[in-house]
């Protein structure tokens, strides 16, 4: 796959994936089109030695794997990423009406950079659980697919200190405005009724013969920016998009798996809830990956032997050195955009890289003819983390933390290198082989 084709596919994937649920749905479509067979956790598995399979949990995490050789002797090459991104999530009882404006109460999910959420065209997507006319519970992914809301800024005339000393109250400043209610309309507007109409419109549009939804029971919904991903820059150097952290790694790992015909056993895991600590059934601290590997290995001894011959590449975006804030980086470890993927190192094990796993990844980059960089946070600053240390701890597997250099991480619109995304794809494809 050439760079332009890869980047176009990445942009389309992000556009189709406004939430972790949609990201997994899109990945499932690609896997099924490539001949991968769906497994379910509640059934016994009849896994072929030469098979291609995938399994999901909570519709927001996914594991895909191919088997070619005995696991105990050859191990399995793994890539890990996460499907979630910082965002604004709708509260269970969200309706707010003030001066005839309908707003929705929101929670901040993850470590979001909040200022860029103001004055953006926002839509809403996620999963809705409903009761149908037969008294059965159903689940539907919904997406308004158009701008339906905005979080307006307060005018500079009413806040003269906004540019010098602006503070954002997550409770009072962030509820998006959806509409101006007609005069004399009741103020007890039901958001669930709006959801019910959308769910039934989608059910009517399908050919599955699903029964009409009669009541919304629950939902997990997130606002997102409707501005589409784009290649930007005078020389088309950059990719600008929401959710580059970490859908870029999800797509890169997926395409590296699908485009590789090597004989090595290979696995991709994309977990939800990394941005809030990974503590959930579908997060990296849950047992999803370990459960799948236990099924494949057959015993604790088999699992231990397999992990000794395996490698996990934890792929999550890295901080590029910002030309306006160079003092925020260690001078010798400031990754440059489009100079290749970054190996992330931390003495306190916030990243799982050690000299052995780092050497293996560097050699893979060399064999794939891909440049590689290193990142270490300033010694006087705190360090973020990834699913890497969690996975290494749970499985006892050699792990290396890597990622592409990124500006504005956790903003509503991030910036990464067009070449770096393709570089990471090439080296992960080589790791899988």
Automatic annotation (TrEMBL):
Single GO molecular function: aminopeptidase activity
InterPro entries to which the protein is assigned, alphabetical: Peptidase_M18, Peptidase_M18_dom2
Record EC number: 3.4.11.-
Keyword Metal-binding tagged: yes
A single BP term in Gene Ontology: proteolysis
GO cellular component: cytoplasm
Keywords: Aminopeptidase, Hydrolase, Metal-binding, Metalloprotease, Protease, Zinc
Sequence similarity: Belongs to the peptidase M18 family.
The protein's name in its UniProt record: M18 family aminopeptidase
Organism in which the protein naturally occurs: Mariprofundus micogutta
């Amino acid at each position: 796959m050439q760079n332009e084709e890869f980047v176009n596919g990445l942009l389309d994937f992000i556009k189709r994936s406004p939430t972790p649920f949609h990201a997994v749905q899109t990945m499932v479509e690609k896997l099924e089109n490539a001949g991968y067979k769906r497994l379910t956790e509640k059934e016994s598995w009849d896994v072929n030695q030469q098979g291609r399979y995938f399994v999901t949990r909570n519709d927001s995490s996914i594991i895909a794997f191919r088997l070619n050789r005995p696991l105990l002797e050859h191990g399995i090459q793994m890539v890990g990423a996460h499907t979630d991104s910082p965002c604004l999530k709708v509260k269970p009882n969200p309706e707010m009406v003030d001066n005839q404006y309908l707003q929705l109460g929101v929670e901040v999910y993850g470590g979001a950079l909040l200022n860029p959420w103001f004055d953006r065209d926002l839509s809403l997507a996620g999963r809705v659980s409903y009761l149908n006319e037969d008294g059965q519970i159903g689940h539907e992914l919904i997406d308004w697919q158009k701008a339906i809301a905005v979080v307006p800024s307060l005018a500079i005339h009413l806040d003269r200190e906004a540019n010098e000393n602006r503070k954002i109250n997550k409770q009072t400043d962030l509820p998006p405005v959806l509409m101006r209610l007609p005069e004399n309309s009741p103020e007890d507007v039901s958001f669930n009724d709006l959801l019910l109409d959308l769910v039934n419109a989608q059910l009517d549009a399908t050919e599955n013969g699903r029964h009409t939804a009669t009541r919304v029971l629950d939902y997990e919904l997130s606002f997102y920016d409707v501005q589409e991903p784009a290649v930007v820059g005078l020389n088309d150097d950059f990719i600008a998009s929401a959710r580059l952290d970490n859908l870029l790694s999800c797509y890169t790992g997926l395409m590296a798996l699908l485009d590789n015909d090597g004989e090595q056993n290979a696995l991709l895991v994309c977990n939800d809830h990394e941005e809030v600590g990974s503590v959930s059934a579908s997060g990296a601290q849950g047992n999803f990956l370990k459960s799948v590997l236990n099924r494949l290995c057959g015993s604790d001894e088999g699992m231990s032997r397999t992990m000794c011959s395996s490698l996990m590449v934890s792929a999550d975006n890295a901080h590029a050195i910002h030309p306006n804030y160079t003092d925020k980086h260690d001078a010798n470890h400031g990754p440059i955009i489009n100079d290749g993927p970054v190996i992330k190192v931390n003495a306190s094990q916030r990243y799982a890289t050690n000299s052995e796993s780092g050497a293996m990844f560097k050699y893979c980059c060399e064999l794939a003819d891909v440049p590689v960089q290193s990142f270490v946070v300033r010694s006087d600053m705190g360090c973020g983390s990834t699913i890497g240390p969690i996975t290494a701890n749970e499985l006892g597997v050699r792990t290396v933390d890597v990622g592409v250099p990124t500006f504005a991480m956790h903003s509503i619109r991030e910036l990464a290198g067009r070449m770096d995304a393709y570089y990471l794809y090439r080296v992960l494809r080589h790791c899988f082989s």
